[in-house]
Amino acid sequence: MAQLDIRGLVARYNDTTVLDGIDLTVERGEIVSLIGPSGSGKSTLLRVITGLLRPRAGAVSIGGEAIDYGDRRSLRRAREKLAIVFQQYNLFGNMSVLRNVMVAPVTIKKRARAEVETEARLLLGKVGLGDKLDAYPDELSGGQQQRVAIARALCLKPDILLLDEVTSALDPERVGEVLDTIKLLAAEHMTLLIVSHEMSFVREVSNRVVFMADGRVQEAGPPAQIFDAPQMPRTQAFVSRIMRHGAASDA
């Protein structure tokens, strides 16, 4: 049984169809990366999964349990199994790093503060911020803030972690520290669904790569297939374009 199972998913913004019959599965412990041109529906798919945008048709199941997006209880149960990290860090500026990581498990999930604090300290150590517990967000670099956001998501103990272009708002020299953190999670076999434009990272970390365009899955397969031997014309054109851009950037 797939940990995440998506069938025939359709979503619209007003009269514009942004997801047009998406089928996708993610197995437990699998790292699946979504790539494709801007506007292809990658980030929208994450928003729909978490209920931030309600689908018009189709079905999403987590661990075999279908999500009824019109039912608050069903959506709440689904969100207890998910955590998402966005492009922007969305940290509370008036809270320390430690409190930022602790606030949701304590206030929303009503977990014991002492237990959560122990976990938060361990997680911040894992992402390389064990010495920043008492710092405030405006005292951190962008990369450090994003790593706090990842630790905050992990403190919710999700079954699936969704990462939405988590390096796109960072200066180039800060991208590596966030990608290294994600590699650590991948090495621990956490289930990850990643939207990213960092193609070398996607190739290295993913079990499977999904190429999206025009709100549809155009092709999916192992990284070697997608980047070295794509089967579909749209995938071939996209990979050729990014390869040319990469070569030009290296020149």
Provide a descriptive summary of the structure in words:
This protein is an alpha/beta fold and 251 residues long. It has a domain at 1-81 and 195-251: Rossmann fold, CATH 3.40.50. Helices cover 40% and strands 24% of the residues. It has nine helices and ten strands. It has helices spanning 42-49, 72-79, 97-107, 113-126, 142-154, 172-187, 199-205, 223-228, 233-250; strands spanning 4-13, 16-26, 31-35, 57-62, 65-66, 82-85, 160-164, 191-195, 208-213, 216-221. Strands 6-7-8-3-9-10 form a six-stranded mixed sheet, with helices on both faces. β4 and β5 form a beta hairpin. α3 crosses α4. The longest helix is centred in the C-terminal third of the chain and has 18 residues, at 233-250. The termini are far apart. The model is unreliable at 247-251 (pLDDT under 50).
Output the keywords.
globular; alpha/beta; six-stranded mixed sheet; Rossmann fold; 251 residues
What shape does the CA trace take? globular
CATH topology of the domain at 1-81 and 195-251: Rossmann fold
Beta-strand fraction estimate? 15-25%
Describe the oligomeric state of these chains in a short phrase. Answer: single chain
SSE layout and pairing:
Blueprint: E1 4-13, E2 16-26, E3 31-35, H1 42-49, E4 57-62, E5 65-66, H2 72-79, E6 82-85, H3 97-107, H4 113-126, H5 142-154, E7 160-164, H6 172-187, E8 191-195, H7 199-205, E9 208-213, E10 216-221, H8 223-228, H9 233-250
Parallel strand pairs: 3-8, 3-9, 6-7, 7-8
Antiparallel strand pairs: 1-2, 1-4, 4-5, 9-10
